[in-house]
Amino acid sequence: MDSRYEVEFTVRGDDFLAAGEASNQIKETLVMLGVPSAISRRASVITYEAEMNLVIHAGGGILRAVITPERLTIVATDLGPGIPDLDLAMKEGFSTASDRVREMGFGAGMGLPNIKRNADVLKIDTEVGKGTTLTATVFFGRQAEQGG
Amino acid sequence: MTVSSLIEALGLTVHHEGNGDCPVSRGVVGDLLSFVMGGAPEGAVWVTLQTHVNIAAVAVLKDIPLIILASGRTPDAELLERCRQENIGLAAASASPFDVCGALHDLGLKG
Asked: A23 vs B53: CB contact, 8 Å cut-off?
């Protein structure tokens, strides 16, 4: 592949009809670039959970994937409410999602833990009232066992 | 076992057959989307009570060839349309998720 390949998608807040489209496009891009399936499976978990966080919690945002020969970096940026307690948000089972969203099978408090499990490096910059930037990196050199 | 033979063996109501020749050997059951996203085996058949369009997105990303709606659930129109677009199998069973999973296990599918 070329030395660097980048795709970017705008994700609309509360748009459950289009939710998952950006993740699907990123998956297709990874397949097109010949990224190993073990990597793209982990990437799909990360992109989907990040995309749904933008839809459910952030009022939308930008989902970006940067692919180089060594790594895949997924960046989700929003101008949403921010995360007041990041340690709590990382705990499996904790969620601030509404009842309506939970009834759809979201808001189980598994999103960020799923991302952490499938990323080699996870960085979350967040500020209440300003927004959140999540950066997840997957290195191609590491044999993937996560992600199902 | 293929998607088609599984549908026939369970006597499922077919909404969209998808790739009938696709081999299946694994299954997953659940209504929490992140649970399925994080833990479904590759290419698994998915048994669920959810009927809305967002389950199709999970199926696409997890390469799930067949969704089985249990307990007589019927798919939302948007879900059926998305499954047709993406060629994901979508079928329904009158049996409960427990009984559907039992039948799948009897057919040799593993979790």
From this structure: no
- The reply to whether B39 touches chain A by the CB within 8 Å rule is yes
Could you give the strand order of the β-sheet that contains B13-16, starting from the edge strand earlier in sequence? Answer: B13-16, B89-92, B66-69, B45-48, B27-29
How far apart CA A119 and CA B26 sit, in angstroms, is 25
Report how many domains make up chain B: 1
User: Letter for the amino acid at A32?
Assistant: M
Instruction: Decide: A83 and A60 in contact? Cβ < 8 Å.
Output: no
Partner residue opposite A19 with nearest CB, options B32, B38, B57: B57
What's the pTM? 0.92
* End-to-end CA separation in angstroms for chain B: 15
User: pLDDT tens-digit profile of A7-55?
Assistant: 999 999 999 999 999 999 999 999 999 999 999 999 999 999 999 999 9
CATH for A5-139, options being 2.60.40.740, 3.30.565.10, 3.40.50.2300, 3.40.640.10: 3.30.565.10
- Domain locations along chain A: 5-139
Per-residue pLDDT tens over the stretch B2-17:
999 999 999 999 999 9
Residue from the list B35, B54, B61 with its beta carbon closest to the beta carbon of A44: B61
Q: Chains A and B: how many Cβ contacts under 8 Å? A: 73
Of the candidates A111, A9, A15, A125, the one whose C-alpha atom is nearest the C-alpha of residue A62 is: A9
